Structure formats: structure tokens, C-alpha cells
Amino acid sequence: MNDQSPPPMPGCRDVPVLRERGQREVFCGLTGIIWLHRKMQDAFFLVVGSRTCAHLLQSAAGVMIFAEPRFGTAILEETDLAGMADAQDELDREVARLLARRPDIRQLFLVGSCPSEVIKLDLAKAAERMSAAHAPNVRVINYSGSGIETTFTQGEDACLAAMVPVLPETDARELVLVGALPDVVEQQAVGLLEAMGIGPIRVLPAPRKADDLGLGANTVFALTQPFLGDTHAALERRGARHIPAPFPFGEEGTTAWLQAIATEFDVAPDLFERVTAAPRARARKAVAQAAEGLDGKSVFFFPDSQLEVPLARFLTRECGMTAIEVGTPYLHRDLMGPDMDLMVQGPVFSEGQDVDMQLDRCRAARPDLTVCGLGLANPLEAEGLTTKWAIELVFTPVHFYEQAGDLAGLFSRPLRRRAVLKLDAAQPPAARAEARR
């Protein structure tokens, strides 16, 4: 009997990419501090910047006036910017005052911003000087969170990449999960892997400096976030080996991610099935319920969070959507390749942005759902397009099996809201008034 089924469609890993280098709509990389400071319990993030930086962080974090947050801003005054004061001396004094007041700090991150980079303030040298002065109690590390050239998730990438060179050496065979996740999501991932007999398992970033992992030729690592390209390169320079896999969004992505690690550690197929069968079934059911209304709809991604490629894979493979364009700030094929392998050719993949040209393409396509940043969402809504804020996909737990339904719901809710508004507008005024009572 001859198999008459059509050959499998080739994936998208090698499709041409539209590269744009025009005006971009980006969100500041300093916002990564909002989730990083919650993961590292003995760390403090000191942004060397302006009052605008301080207002941004306080607004993003919703800091209460009586709270003692683990981040702050060393304000660059006019005399610093004009070169009338020695900014390095001022910074040394501020750091000494901070550490005297907060003896619980074990890791201090000097975070560069647009103002500190414009005046060429050498925070790398400052970090070296302060590490020597405050060792061994405090480790001082520098990274850039500037929004001049980077998108907002690159703040985490820069932070973790800066940590890698100072981590200790080890010859132990260990698995490192790389990327900041909500605690409950991280526990789910570790629990599934430990149930397969995989271990020891370390995480980067670790909760405390004392929990630092070691790195060496026997270290293997799996990324949980697609935007960690610099961290990936830094880990490989330390001799660690990456386990390539689709990212753990949805049932399919989570299973493929777990399977890649299980294969690396020679987990028996029957054990893998026993551990994953129940959560896989729950995830499939949750996605089917939450994704109602997505099947057959089109989606257009503006570049924003660098989650766009694996999310497009999830929406097209598990929710029945059609991707028109998948824009992403940076397309790292080594990291995104496994997700692109699973996607059917058809969507345009674009890297970088020329926002006016991309807006023209979006308006011409009239997608059912547009995923974009805050600055574009309201204008597009006013033009009748349904939008989804990309930033919400970073701040909401969306990884692994138990969050798969929530992830689908983030995309289906804007479409349901639009349908309800249209229905409401079609009703007579008296009926609308009665429905609101």
C-alpha cells in the first residue's frame, strides 16, 4: 500500500528575512529590573541616570511610599552632566552610603542608562573599583539598560550576561535553567525535570549570591526566554553547552523543550510519558477552551519583546491562527531555529523596524489581531484594529503546561472584547442602558 499523504512542509528556519533599519518604537531596557529584583533576593539595582529613569521605574513597579525597594536611581545632576563635578567620586559616595544603610545587599548592579552612556561615564571601571573596595561581602557588576539601542527585554539579557564571567568553575555535570521566571512557574519546570530523575538543577539568576552555580565543560543549559542571546554566548565562552529546543510556550513547545533535556540525560521514553501525560492533557484542554475564537483568525506581530517567533509558533500550531508578519527586534537563528522549524512557510519574518513602513503593511493587511507595544496600540485601536499589548506577555506567567491556557487567553480576550463592543454598539440606546444596569 502506497502512502499518498503529502510530504511535510518545510519549516521557516531558512526563509528570507526582511531586515529593516529605520525608526523604531522601543521600550526602555531598565524595565527588566522590575522582574529581576524580585528573583535575586540579596541584590540591589542602582540605575545611574536621570529623574526620568527614576520616574519610569517607580511607575512600572508601582512602588509604595513606605516600601524599601531593592532598586534605586543615582541621579545625574546638571553639574555631573556638564562635567563640573567628578561623577565617579559622587557615585562612590552614594554607593558607600547605600551599602552602609543596607547591609543585606550582597550583589550590587550598576545599571547604565541613556544619560550615563551619553556622557561616557565608565561604569565598568567603577564596578571593578567598588568590588575591590567592598569585597568579599558585596559583588559589584555593571550592565547597560539603556533604551537608546536596545529593546526592553535586553535588560535581563545584559544583566545575566554580565554575571556569567564571575561565576565559579565546576567540573560537575549539571543542568542550568537560564532566564528569570515567576517562582511558581520555575518550580513547575524543576518539578517535572526532577520527576524524570534529572539533576542537579541550577537556575540563573539564582535567588542569592550564596546559591551561585558553577560553570564548566560538563555544564549543559536550557534557555527559558528567547531574548537571551548575549547570555547564551557568554555561557558558551565559559565552556557550557546549549540544549537547543523550541521555547516552552503552550503544550507543544513545553513538551519539545522537556524532551530535548530528557534526551540529553537519557530519560526512558516510558518515564517521560508518565511524568508529562497528565499536565499535557490539562494543557491541551485549557488551550482548546481559551483559544475559542482564535481559529482561522490572522495575527500581525510588531517587534517588541523578542518573544514573537515562539508565540507565532504557538498561535499557528496550537490555536489555528494565521501569521501575516512576525516582526522581532533581533532574529537569533540558533535560538529561534527550533521554533521556526515547526512553522509552515507563509508569514513574513522581519528583523528590526522601520515603524512607518511596518504600519503601512499592517494597515494594508487588516489583521484580526495586532501584537504591538503600548505606543502603537491606541492609535491602531482608533483605526479599528484589535490589538494586544506585547509587554503584558512578559509580565504575565505564560510558560509551561499549567499556564498554556492563560497564554491562549491573552490573545483571545481582545477579540472577544471587540465582538462585545460591536454587539453593544448595534443595540438600541434603551437596550444598552438596560444591559448596563
TrEMBL record:
Chain coiled-coil ranges: none
Record note on cofactor: Binds 1 [4Fe-4S] cluster per heterodimer. The cluster is bound at the heterodimer interface by residues from both subunits.
InterPro entries for this protein: LIPOR_BchN/ChlN, Nase/OxRdtase_comp1, Protochl_reductN
Cofactor: [4Fe-4S] cluster
Biological pathway: Porphyrin-containing compound metabolism; bacteriochlorophyll biosynthesis (light-independent)
Sequence positions that bind [4Fe-4S] cluster: C28, C53, C114
Ranges for domain Nitrogenase/oxidoreductase component: 28-383
Enzyme Commission number, as recorded: 1.3.7.7
PANTHER family found in the cross-reference section: LIGHT-INDEPENDENT PROTOCHLOROPHYLLIDE REDUCTASE SUBUNIT N
Subunit composition and interactions: Protochlorophyllide reductase is composed of three subunits; BchL, BchN and BchB. Forms a heterotetramer of two BchB and two BchN subunits.
Protein name: Light-independent protochlorophyllide reductase subunit N
Annotated source species: Meridianimarinicoccus roseus
Gene from which this protein is expressed: bchN
